[in-house]
């Protein structure tokens, strides 16, 4: 199979500033963060404090400014465990953003007695508007949750959690795997880095990415079981893999999250997972994708709540 050659740059040579600027010039706004996300937040103030934790300022690039928001449950108590839900690390992964908002609007209040709930619905608003994986500087936020981050999207949230002294017990990060991973984003990454792209088979169905340093298989299995009530779980390919990784258990692969700078590795949470919804499946509707994200959060919270109850003294 011949590698897909991207239309920007010279094969084998990493992009310089000229190629990055060419890529940025091709991007177009396709939907509105203000309408789809920001204007949804006031209706959630019955159950959450809406806190602006930062602002992305891309005005120097002619792209404007984007306020960043976190939802914090009102009945916050220092003795309760913290559950963190993040969406929109990759702005093009739509159900992550809409699933976080749907959870906040419908189901989250069922868990605020047991947890301090934090929801970050859209970490990468420019990526959401332009349906992109990267930020305008061609940086992938989900490889940048590290100190001195090159991604303001990642750095601002990480710095907020550190400044507030927030250490979640549970962190679930909402993502999608799309057909455009193979048609656009992986070829673009190879071109940017001056490498050769090899596409992987896109899994048809939902799966999870656990943390190889802290896999918590029972936790992952509980989420898979809950999501299976809403949509189908991706089977492994002929090599026993999902996205090129050997499966750790049904519907689950593991990555070294902290080493890779992934969102799921930015805290010391014991229970961590990344959801991967497949919105291009002929067997899933956009609504099912949103409901699958909500189901994943519910499955995670139910499992951890049960574990906390087991540990309480009689």
TrEMBL record:
> According to its UniProt record, which cofactors does this protein need?
Zn(2+)
Determine the domain of life of the protein's source.
Answer: Bacteria
Q: Which residues form the Peptidase M14 domain?
A: 29-314
Q: Does the keyword Zinc feature in the UniProt annotation? A: yes
Q: Which UniProt keywords apply?
A: Hydrolase, Metal-binding, Zinc
CDD domains assigned: M14_REP34-like (cd06231)
Any keyword Zinc?
yes
Q: Which InterPro entries match?
A: AstE_AspA_cat, Peptidase_M14
Q: Which family does it belong to?
A: Belongs to the peptidase M14 family.
Q: What is this protein called?
A: Peptidase
- Organism annotation: Alishewanella tabrizica
